[in-house]
Amino acid sequence: MHLNNYVTVAMLKDKLGISESTQWRMRQDGRLGFFKIGRGIRYNLEEVLQSLQRK
Predict the structure, then answer these.
(1) Which pLDDT tens digit goes with each residue over 9-55?
(2) 10 near 42, Cβ under 8 Å?
(3) CA torsion sign, 44 to 50 to 54 to 55?
(4) Which part of the chain is the Helix-turn-helix domain (predicted)?
(5) What distances in angstroms separate CA 4 from CA 22, 43, 44, 45, 50, one per listed residue?
């Protein structure tokens, strides 16, 4: 597990321009895989990029 492959909501917004509300919708409908550390949400950046390419 490489920790540099995991990004926060804010980091994903900065890197890919996906707003927090869009991220929330994509999590709710299963398009974005995520996990929680405490109250924070993390994404695997590689998985996010793959799921966006499948659109």
Answers:
(1) 999 999 999 999 999 999 999 999 999 999 999 999 999 999 989 86
(2) no
(3) positive
(4) 7-54
(5) 23, 11, 9, 9, 17
DSSP type of residue 18: -
d(CA 53, CA 48): 9
CA dihedral over 33, 38, 40, 42, signed as positive or negative: negative
- Return the amino acid letter for 21: S
Burial class (CB in 10 A: 0-12, 13-18, 19+), 32: buried
pLDDT at residue 3 tops 60: yes
pTM higher than 0.85: no
Instruction: With CA atoms as reference, report the closest residue to 24 among 13, 4, 15, 53.
Output: 13
